[in-house]
Amino acid sequence: MRSRSQSRLWTVLAVTWALLAVALYISITEGTFDISVKDVVKTLLRIDPVMEHDLVLFEFRLPRIVIGALVGFALGIAGAVVQGITRNGLADTGMLGINAGAGTATVLFMFLFQGSVTGLGTWSIMLMPLCGLAGGLLAASLIFMLAREGKRLDPQRLILVGIAIGSGFGAVTLYVSLKMNPQDFEMAAVWLAGSVYNANWTYVVSMLPWLLVLVPFIWMKSYVLDVLQLEEDSAAGVGVPVERERRGLLIACVGLVSACVAVSGSIGFVGLIAPHIAKRLVGLKHSRIIPVCGFIGMTMVVVADLIGKTVFAPNQLAVGIVISIIGVPYFVYLLFRTAK
């Protein structure tokens, strides 16, 4: 039975990697400036490098693809964690207002300390995830405090409180954005919609430490997420310190989201959709759900970015908007299914 589930896991991962490889191939080779696969390989291996190919690949396409992949991977895993610790299939970091809290803190940092959205230095970019972490933790603390009924977490109240908190942080973000000059306001609006078009290698470097530390921690805690699917008394009865583990996983989740929001703005619904697909494909064990969620999220963001920059060419649509076009109907479907 175990070998069968492992075989299913690797089959799902193989199919996901194949879809991702197709999206990567199209993203790298197609565009305003087409590059053949041969030229891509020669450029990557530094065989007779051409300046135009170097510029297109290393300055524009590859950073954007890598950032999209990392953001999707982190958001998919964060969604699995949030749904695991709340035992609510409708929970998502965007729906709960965590993205909004992290976004508000990041915009405040850019406005108050940098004075501009453009021209951020390396240290500023590296510090933005920390500011996002502060805002995300504030939002998460408010949500979990207000969504409690006695000592228990009310899943229905959690969604309502999350939407309210998210709206409040969104209003603060809009107010701060309106104080910016017109050029910065326009860039902030695009960034908040969820965009990776302005990606560069500094953004990649700012994300990597968060993923390298937090993703292994979450995966090692996958058995805790399995136990947390029980009622709180039952989970405590098998020796799991529920509140401590929940806080640790929540902080890790907010850290991942903050790193994502700092480089790509608020991209919603990835953390909602990826866990549902993963559970249908590989079952309910979080040691399998977490990696599958990561790669499903990665594929979703890379494909959505590809759609946004090709289908609407020469204009570009932010990846967050493309995913929302799919995510909103799916969320409504989940609401109706839950109500029934």
UniProtKB/TrEMBL annotation:
- Coarsely, its chief localization is membrane
Q: Where are the transmembrane segments?
A: 9-28, 62-82, 94-113, 125-146, 158-178, 198-219, 249-277, 289-308, 317-336
- Database matches in SUPFAM superfamilies: ABC transporter involved in vitamin B12 uptake, BtuC
Lineage top rank: taxon: Bacteria
Q: How does it sit in the membrane?
A: Multi-pass membrane protein
Q: Which UniProt keywords apply?
A: Cell membrane, Membrane, Transmembrane, Transmembrane helix, Transport
| Compartment(s) where it occurs, according to its Swiss-Prot or TrEMBL record | Cell membrane
Q: Which InterPro entries match?
A: ABC_BtuC-like (IPR037294), ABC_transptr_permease_BtuC (IPR000522)
Residues in the signal sequence: none
What CDD domains does its record include? TM_ABC_iron-siderophores_like
Q: Does the keyword Amino-acid biosynthesis apply?
A: no
- Family in the record: Belongs to the binding-protein-dependent transport system permease family. FecCD subfamily.
- Spell out the protein name for this chain: FecCD family ABC transporter permease
Q: Which organism is it from?
A: Paenibacillus xanthanilyticus
